[in-house]
């Protein structure tokens, strides 16, 4: 008989070199920092200690998420698992903001404007110019993607428009077939999934921040209603990490 609940584990990549510098990153393909590598490995150990195992993993085309997944799988002795890498799980494209410091942007444009750029549901950051060196149309990682699907900027709504169908068409059938799934992705691609899982309003998702390198476990019934949600780790440390993400876009006092 099929189990009546299904678990899904999400993990945001560990701290990246650009998280450390507090820069808008989006699709910029930066490495994990040393702290980020440690966070990712700790996430893997926590999953192993809590008795988790997986059958298939999903990640983005960006190395901070791919390397996070590798660290997790290494700790779990599961490096042989199948891994699907899709651009549809990439971070939200941060347009022309990519490379700017978040606190400096807040000092220049105000905390409110930066919060809109970071967390608004349907307002996009300024677009990249076509042909800009950051333009995904010119990047090898996306050479198999139809040009009209690649963004010059994205709001959360746009990220949902690619990440959610990917979940529904690719990941959900695996879960319904009894496969245990791990997704290693990004702050905003994971917020897209969280918004849909929890049927949140744009106002509710505005206040959701996802910490780096901490496994987040959802339990669903067979109709994909959420019956439980929990981070694995020390609640105080996790709360402090969530708060730090929320504060990245405030001007330094
Ligand atoms: O792309 C980025 O800058 C981060 O990975 C996510 O940033 P945010 O928390 O500012 O949206």
Task: Kindly describe this structure.
A hairpin with a 4-residue loop joins β5 and β6 (226-231). The longest helix is centred in the middle third of the chain and has 21 residues, at 156-176. With 253 residues, this protein is α/β, with parallel strands linked by helices. The relative contact order is 0.20. The protein has a single domain (5-247), classed as Rossmann fold, CATH 3.40.50.1240. The protein has a six-stranded mixed β-sheet. It has nine helices and six strands. It has helices at 17-20, 34-49, 63-75, 102-109, 111-119, 156-176, 187-197, 202-206, 235-247; strands at 5-12, 56-59, 83-85, 181-185, 216-221, 226-231. GO terms for molecular function: phosphoglycerate mutase activity. This is 2,3-bisphosphoglycerate-dependent phosphoglycerate mutase. It comes from Paratractidigestivibacter faecalis. It holds the Pfam family His_Phos_1.
Which labels suit this protein?
alpha/beta; isomerase; Rossmann fold; six-stranded mixed beta sheet; single chain; PG/BPGM_mutase_AS; 13% strand; phosphoglycerate mutase activity; binds 3-phosphoglyceric acid
